[in-house]
Design brief:
alpha+beta, single chain, five-stranded mixed β-sheet, 526 residues
């Protein structure tokens, strides 16, 4: 190539020099040929390769002698060739001045790589296309990483969207729903179209929203990274479920808050089971406490019974012992002719009454034992209740009179029923005895009548009456309306009487008021 000549003002030559643009071209050639990470080469207007740098050799595997003069379509896959992609790229670069894309390209050995390609149209000063500059980068490693990340994200998305037993949703930093999986739809009833963009407060009860619970949960998640809670949440249809909720704050690599992940489980059945178990435990504790109180009461009753029994038994025993000593002395004096024999009659009668009292006490205790063990025996027969009650009334008549008590007896002419004479007589005697003991000397009225299908035996006294609080208690074992110091007895009579009446298919009722006396009624079915 002829070098340009430098001339002076007279036109004479001053010698040959290197033009500045030639030096610039050389520097550019050295620069492009030295680049190893980019394939930089020139194409003629038809797309044939004119230059080849070291980067192009390293990326595509061709030596310059192998590829210069070949068409750049050599680097394209068969699919792209069939589609006419190389010619289309040059057309676009010619029209717009530049074409850029990423796609698969082919190396000399047939392997493919993911390339970033920039094709630039080169024009002269008149705008005529002189060729194209083509820069190629191998981004295969980056694409593989992106593909792995994308596949990982897709797998995660598929996992999250497929989970049906957990509501897994994303919230933006303000608490608005930005993603919604199948589990969330199944659990809460909203479709993604209905709920995305809405505040997550829609799942909370009004009182929780008013109390600021939703904002507080997000603040806790921001402060500690994670918040967990169990409580009532709402479905779309307004129904409630007991939820286990975990909210996790999501941050960028720089620590900036990007939103929240929210996982919700329906644990209603678990809560119900726990509630049932807790209720069972509480009920058991209550039953144990009640049973403990019953046992304590039973122990108290036992102790009171033992105290009363010992007192009640000691009194006639002491009298009997005294009677025995008196009888022994009087018998000795009678033998000596000092006292008449008739004197012993009163002592014998008194002793007999003491023995009867002891016998009754022992019989009552035996009856309570029989009732408790289900061994109380009955022998039913047809009888006239008027005669039965009248006989007992008359046997008590002299005791009423001795205590200054006015007593009356009223009845139908005859009232027949099948009863155990001994046991029902025991009930009548007990009620008459109570009227005498607790009536404080007031009149006593006894009656026997038929009322429909029932026989009614009533014993009414005009004594002080029984307070409402005591009316059911006095029918229990060892219970009395007054203290042991006020009246004798073990507190078993009414308990035994009620059991006997119920064994007859009937009952014993009490109607009483303080200051108005008491009426006990034995009801026996006919």
């Amino acid at each position: 190539m002829t070098q340009p000549q430098m001339r002076d003002d007279t036109g004479k030559s001053k010698g040959t020099v290197v033009a500045p643009f030639v030096a610039s071209e050389e520097r550019f050639r050295l620069l492009t040929e030295s680049v190893k990470d980019y394939g930089i080469f020139m194409l003629d207007p038809e797309g044939y390769i004119q230059t080849w740098n070291e980067g192009a050799r390293r990326i595509k595997g061709y030596e310059a002698s192998e590829i210069v003069g070949k068409h750049f379509s050599t680097f394209y896959t068969q699919t792209d060739l069939d589609d006419g992609k190389p010619a289309r790229e040059l057309f676009i670069a010619t029209k717009e001045g530049k074409y850029e894309e990423e796609g698969w390209r082919v190396r000399k050995d047939g392997t493919t790589f993911w390339a970033n390609v920039v094709i630039t149209a080169l024009r002269d000063s008149n705008g005529v296309i002189k060729g194209f500059g083509k820069v190629t980068r191998d981004l295969t490693t980056r694409k593989e990483a992106e593909d792995l990340l994308r596949e990982s994200e897709e797998r995660y998305r598929l996992i999250v969207s497929s989970v049906k037993d957990y509501a897994i949703i994303m919230l933006d930093p303000e608490g608005r729903v930005v993603s919604w999986n199948e589990g969330a739809y199944r659990l809460k009833g909203y479709t993604a179209q209905e709920i995305i963009g809405q505040k997550f407060t829609k799942f909370y009860e009004p009182e929780d929203i008013e109390a600021g619970k939703c904002d507080w949960e997000l603040r806790e998640a921001i402060a500690t990274g994670r918040f967990e809670d169990e409580g009532w949440r709402l479905r779309k249809d307004g129904s409630r479920f007991w939820a286990n909720v975990v909210i996790t704050a999501l941050r960028s690599d720089k620590g900036e808050l990007r939103g929240f992940a929210k996982v919700t489980r329906d644990v209603t059945e678990k809560k119900r089971s726990e509630d049932r178990l807790r209720f069972a435990h509480e009920s058991l504790e209550i039953r144990v406490a009640n049973r403990t109180r019953e046992l304590e009461k039973a122990i108290e009753s036992r102790d009171e019974f033992l105290s009363i029994a010992s007192h009640e038994l000691r009194t006639p025993l002491t009298a009997l012992k005294l009677q025995q000593q008196i009888l022994e002395r009087q018998m000795k004096r009678a033998k000596d002719g000092l006292v008449p024999v008739e004197l012993f009659q009163d002592m014998i009668e008194l002793t007999g009454r003491q023995v009867d009292q002891l016998t009754n006490l022992v019989d009552d205790m035996l009856d309570v034992s029989r009732i408790a063990n289900g061994q109380m025996s009955y022998s039913f027969e047809e009888c006239d209740l008027v005669k039965l009650v009248g006989d007992h009334f008359r046997s008590f008549k002299h005791q009423f009179e001795a205590n200054g008590i006015k007593s009356t007896f009223h009845s139908d002419s005859e009232v027949k029923a099948r009863v155990d004479l001994h046991r029902l007589g025991q009930v009548v005697a007990n009620l008459l005895s109570n009227a005498m003991k607790y009536g404080e000397g007031a009149p006593v009225e006894v009656s026997v009548f038929r009322a429909g299908s029932e026989a009614l035996i009533t014993v009414h006294d005009n004594g002080p009456g029984v307070a409402d609080a005591n009316q059911s208690r006095i029918f229990e074992r060892f219970e009395r309306a007054v203290s042991a110091s006020e009246a004798s007895g073990l507190g078993l009579g009414l308990y035994i009487s009620r059991q006997i009446a119920e064994a007859h298919g009937g009952r014993v009722d009490l109607v009483s008021a303080v200051g108005e006396g008491s009426t006990f009624t034995i009801r026996i079915p006919i």
